[in-house]
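Weekly modeling sync, notes
Attendees: S.R. (lead), two postdocs, one rotation student

Agenda item 3: backlog of single-chain predictions. S.R. asked that every request posted to the team notebook include the full sequence so nobody has to chase files. The rotation student volunteered to paste the first one in as an example of the format we agreed on. Action items at the bottom.

Example entry:
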Amino acid sequence: MTDGHGDTILVLGAGNFGTCLAQHLAEKGYHVTIWSRSQEVVDAINVAHKNPKYLSTINLSPRLHATKLIDSATLASVDVVVHATPTQTMREVLTQLAPYWRAKLLLICAAKGVEMGSLDLPSQIISEVLGAEVAMRAAFLSGPSFASEIMARQPTAVTAASRTPASAQRVQSLFHSAHFRVYSSDDPVGLEVAGALKNVVAIAAGACVGIGFQMNSRAALITRGLAEITRIGVAMGANPLTFNGLSGVGDLFLTCTSEKSRNFSVGYRLGQGQPLEKVLAEVGMAEGVSTAKAAHDLALKLKVDAPITNEVYRVLYENKPMAQAVMDLLTREAKPEVSFGPRG
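Predicted structure, as returned to the notebook:
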């Protein structure tokens, strides 16, 4: 155990990943407060040291305290804020924080997605709500990391990206451990694009398996999905090499090949012919469903070719039959394999 730097940490969001990160930091010796909208979750964490809804078998650290309040007292007592709520609620949550924000606070964002309507990445939401300086100093955490495996101390590696090198290095110091390796990057945009769009490709990968296609098909889909993500990222100013790293191909491979992924599970059931409403009722909301619409609109705005994203969008939002979507992908005209231009 370590006292780290004496930092006290607020984790926003008591879902799977928020609970996992809070527990990991508490196990490292930090004093952590986790925020939840649910009084039931707050009471269970504080009294029984369990989250009744997520990772419910884990005995949570006594260093981990829960609250339902976002106020001046909550923010005054912390040095670091980790944002782990879904991207679609991020603006609302950060707006609650804004009146109490202090200049020296470090914001670490673990949200993955593109905001519907605005088409903003998390960094853009941060800039609009908390200011450009906060966004410049903020760090973004992403990589192939199922929460349940981190909690089981399975070796895991992720990336912390920031435009401010000192912020990425501080995140490394906060999170790095023998079973949770943290690498640094100076390309938050690439990391954010990859983290968001891999969920859309994972829905397609799940559908591919649900239909009955085997490994050749899945490998092709993942590889072309990576090319599509890279095109969109490069159009937004990302470094193409980022997509060859943990937050790119690493996270994409994990999410597209495991039934632990809700996005994969949604696609798998759709591929088997189940209706979307039934799938979401049983699996729960998957980030890729909302991101598919935002990513479709973003690709149009950027004039970037995104055939997989477009077909996932049409299946989810235009009731296009899955078999027809697959056929339309398979019968596209032949193209060069590597291209970062709008017609790639």
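Discussion: group reviewed the output briefly. Residues 193-330 form a domain with the N-(1-d-carboxylethyl)-l-norvaline Dehydrogenase; domain 2 fold (CATH 1.10.1040.10).
Action items: rotation student to repeat for the remaining queue; S.R. to check formatting next week.
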